[in-house]
From TrEMBL:
A single Gene Ontology CC term: plasma membrane
Keywords, comma-separated and alphabetical: Cell membrane, Membrane, Transmembrane, Transmembrane helix
UniProt entry tagged with the keyword Iron: no
Biased amino acid composition, Basic and acidic residues: 263-274
Annotated source species: Halarchaeum salinum
Official protein name in the record: A24 family peptidase
Domain Prepilin type IV endopeptidase peptidase: 13-144
Keyword Cell membrane among UniProt keywords: yes
Superkingdom, taxonomy of origin: Archaea
Subcellular location field: Cell membrane
Membrane topology: Multi-pass membrane protein
Membrane-traversing stretches: 33-53, 65-85, 97-113, 125-146, 317-344
Pfam families tied to this protein: Peptidase_A24
Length: 345
């Protein structure tokens, strides 16, 4: 294989992104330590290519390099910065990945083999970061189709079958996403985040099975006096039992300070803070992924009353970004190939 030094160095992005995609699938978390080395690598590659373009005999080489770098940084990097500041459906890792790609992959790499060249389908503008992004977006569109077909094949028909899946409640401690139904069985988006559910269970020192088996745990008087660290809700090994070491067991005689003189109940036994949802959110001094006391109570009622629920796993964009990167290095630009097939480019 023949390629320039920067193009060979850029291949290191593939194993790095593959590792990040693996972590995203397993935990929905991508280590922040992934980005600094890739950014440094990107700056080194830019410096080498910039030096070569500056000393190239053809002045167009420098202008083309500068234009592609600026387009990559402004469009792809700018999108990453925007999604980091305004996280509308994008995680922090997704946004950082876009910024990293804009620095590391502004120009098209070329790899010469005996008899063929990769990428197979380059674009006219030759901004490689744009190819990775458009590939990821196109590949990401296939995920709802996969959900739709897999749900239909299992006979799981619902209005949310293109964005969710139905899973046994006992699987929720190791699933990612959020609930897609309420107590009335209405399907909707924006339900209880499963990371927040894990945080709540860890904070109380109970498992989801405990909550389902013991209706008395709905009583806020059973909250522990010394709650556990709720963590960030990440799935970890052994999440069939999400207790946290150092927690205390719950009992009606061992209560957490909720800021009230007593816990009130009405004649039907309904508590003023069912499940201790408000006490939990007050104690952690955070939103737990946008969870409100009302949505936490609603979600806990659903998962303790049902045997199976609809959840939305979301589209792991980092995974599709990794796939888009691999396709870009090998096949090339999917969108450009489709447009070319219709004679549009």
């Amino acid at each position: 294989m023949y390629a320039t030094v920067p193009d060979l160095l850029r291949l290191l992005a593939v194993p790095a992104f593959a590792y990040g995609a693996y972590r995203d699938i397993e935990t929905r978390r991508v280590p922040d330590l992934l980005w600094p080395p890739l950014l440094v690598l990107g700056v080194v590659c830019l410096a080498i290519e910039g030096w070569n373009a500056l000393h190239a005999p053809n002045a167009f080489t420098l202008r083309a390099f500068a234009l592609r770098t600026v387009v990559s940084l402004l469009i792809v990097g700018g999108l990453g910065v925007f999604f980091y500041v305004v996280p509308v459906g994008f995680g922090g890792a997704d946004a950082k990945a876009l910024v990293t790609i804009s620095v590391l992959l502004p120009t098209y790499p070329t790899y010469y083999f005996d008899g063929f060249v990769l990428p197979h389908v380059p674009t006219t503008i030759r901004v490689f970061a744009l190819t990775v992004l458009t590939n990821a977006l196109i590949l990401g569109m296939a995920y709802p189709l996969y959900l739709l077909c897999s749900n239909a094949a299992r006979g799981e028909v619902a209005s949310v079958m293109a964005v969710g899946k139905r899973v046994p409640v006992e699987r929720l401690p190791v699933e990612h996403g959020s609930l897609l139904e309420d107590r009335e069985g209405t399907h909707f988006t924006g339900g209880l985040d499963l990371d927040a559910l894990r945080m709540y269970c860890r904070w109380r020192g109970v498992t989801l099975a405990d909550l389902r088996d013991d209706p008395e745990l709905r009583d806020p008087a059973t909250l522990p006096a010394e709650p556990n660290d709720p963590t960030d809700g990440m799935v970890t090994k052994g999440d069939g039992d999400v207790r946290t070491d150092g927690g205390t067991t719950t009992s009606a005689d061992d209560t957490i300070d909720t800021g009230r003189a007593s816990v009130d109940t009405d004649r039907e036994g309904n508590h003023d803070d069912p499940w201790g949802a408000a006490a939990f959110l007050d104690d952690i001094e955070g939103s737990a992924y946008g969870t409100s006391p009302a949505s936490l109570r609603e979600g806990l009622d659903v998962v303790t009353e049902r045997e199976a629920v609809w959840i939305t796993p979301g589209t792991p964009f980092f995974v599709t970004l990794c796939l888009g990167l691999i396709v870009a290095f090998t096949y090339g630009d999917i969108l450009f190939a489709v447009l070319g097939a219709f004679g549009l480019v």
